Amino acid sequence: MDTLLRQWLMLRMIPRHPRKISTADIETRLAAEGFGTTRRTIQRDLDKLSTKFQLCSDGNKPAGWSWQADAEAFDVPGMDTTAALTFRMVETFLAPLLPRTCIASLQPQMQRAKNILAQLEGQAPASWPDKVKTISRSQPLLAPELPAEVLEVAYEALFRDRRFCGAYRNREETDYRDYVVNPLGLVIAEPVVYLVATLWDYTDIRVLALHRFKSAELLEDPVTRPVGFDLDAYLQQGEMMLPVSPGAKTIRLVVEFARDAGYHLLESPLSTDQQTTTSEEGFIRLEATVPDTLQLRWWLLGFGDGVEVLAPASLREEFKTMIRSMSELYAEEDS
């Protein structure tokens, strides 16, 4: 039994190619687990195990051992149906959120999960991924072209807290400029991936669209992080929803919806302090504290004549001006 346990431990210690481990390192780690043995015994075990498992040696002296790059995941106990289903859902929904290195390291488990579920074809667990989908409530857009190497460098830099150097162009510009970027967070706003970052040693926060990078190179320098920066707090300030002006805060929004237009807000409130009243005619009056952003304006405009902005007065005036401009625009077409 000791021999079997020792060999199981050895198999779990061996990394996937191109990483490797020497027999000396295996000997040290086995001893730490309470399995004292000789280096010759370890070498003999590895030679035997390599005939049954997808192990390979680099042929050097001392030899370095690896699992083959495409080897199926080895695990004890084996992957059950629940674990297989979990890995499939991770691959489907979380892959865009994880660093490429993490996805690569999980690839054997994901392939193993596919194989297990394929054997259960026609049974309930295998069909679960086909029964769960996510959709966007906004107008679907095609994703901009994003160089794979840029995405990989950005994810790796964020994962390792490292700077990277990239050639970036600002919106409506054609020339690229070289920036040293301190990645602080990644925000996926379908279909665009944004990087929240600082540049060089400056402390002001920038939001960079990853698809506007032409190239990127990982640096070994650690990131310079502003003191107290928190991505959640930054997002809660409405910074990613395009503030109407630098430093714009919140407003107390008062609007009146036609029932069909606003009923969903009774179930999915705009804010934690939202208050609503419904008139006898069915109109829904809503008050809520919300960030003062362009996104708020676009959202309200999407309801057309199904909503009336009552307050703040400045926002009501904005909508009056926009409505007059829209009326003139369509009137010109008819004249």
Automatic annotation (TrEMBL):
WYL domain location: 149-217
Domain called WCX: residue spans: 250-326
InterPro entries, per database record: CBASS_pafABC_assoc_protein, WCX_dom, WYL_dom
Superkingdom classification of source: Bacteria
Entries under PANTHER family matching the protein: PROTEIN PAFC, PTHR34580
Stated name of the protein: Uncharacterized protein
Lineage of the organism: Bacteria, Pseudomonadati, Thermodesulfobacteriota, Desulfuromonadia, Desulfuromonadales
